[in-house]
Amino acid sequence: MPPEPQTANPILSESQIADLKLAASKMSGSTRRAFQADMSRKYCAGNARQTERCFGWGREGVQLGLEEQRSGMVCVGAQAAYCGQKRWEETQPEAAAALLALAEAHSQQDPTFRSSIAYTRLTAAEAIRQLQAMGFSGGQVPAPSTMARILNRNGYRLRKVEKAKPQKKIPETDAIFANIQANDGQFADGAVKRLSMDCKATVNIGDYSRGGKTRGDNKAADHEMGCKEKYIPFGVLDEDSGQVYLTFGSSSKTSDFIVDSLCRVWEQMPSADKDACQCIQIKADNGPESSGIRTQFLKRMVEFANHTGKTVHLLYYPPYHSKYNPIERCWGILEQHWNGTQLKDAETLLEWAKTMTWKGINPMVEFSHKVYEKGVTLSKKAMEAVEARLERNAALPKWDILIRPVFG
């Protein structure tokens, strides 16, 4: 038989050395170092350099294992020290709440509703700067790389910039966003109830494809022409509690439908919230039915302020930027929730909407079968009385309106 090949250690064969190296690779930390030290003392006279030549183990690790056995003290590595460490959101809940409020204020929904992910204009560096401006410092504010991970895992991601897409802005766009940010959440004691409202595109009822996937019946009508049953979704998001209120109207999208739905939402809110509230702050896009110059809408909002006994503060988003309105996030979730479902009747529509969740909370859903007349406007004389009740921002008169209640 041919002689066994020579190894770095005359006591062990190549196969035995391979077995010991395999055994060491299955261990980690101090357990691995202790095993390597034992093998070094048994086969290499406790010499770290010779152990490295024999087994291929790093001599620094072998030497550390030998020192640990000699002193009886075990070194704790960085991995072990940080094992099970709580996330920044858990160790700094106040700063985390402030960060998520910032990210929410700077976020937009994907306009195609193809994803429920929110895109934010808020960079990690800007988030750190704003947290520091709020008084958070030292260990309360994470490093930029950590901040980026925190924003990502909470669903706020930077969006890729598209070069070929022109940006549509009006001269007041930046000032409008700055005004919303300045007014948003300035009181944290419940004195201001922050609401976001908007109407979504009309939903056709029938055997129509919604572009998604299903495990059930996957055959839909080849077109949606001639649809007779349609519903207009109107939503209100309570930004403070996370509760969503959805109303599906069977008539027309008008100012009266919007304000009537808003009144029902107010009646459904907890009494404690309404009692503590002094001002109802409403964010909306400047759509034709609810804009800052729509006469019937402004008349109805004056009536709403009188009805609730609360000051109403209307804050509008600029044109082409309604996707930043917080309620748009909820529309994205709803669209993804029932995507692929054939909404064959009103009951199916209602039940699917009820099972949607926003921040772990199911929405409060109802139908409105009231018939609304289109094109209702006020005369100039009637509008003068309404206008006298409006306190318009001097710099942004169409985008920031305050309405104080009149009693009796």
UniProtKB/TrEMBL annotation:
GO molecular function annotation: nucleic acid binding
A Pfam family of this chain: DDE_Tnp_ISAZ013
InterPro entries the record matches: RNaseH_sf, Transposase_36
Transmembrane residue ranges: none
Domain of life (superkingdom): Bacteria
Entry protein name: Rhodopirellula transposase family protein
Organism this protein belongs to: Thiothrix nivea (strain ATCC 35100 / DSM 5205 / JP2)
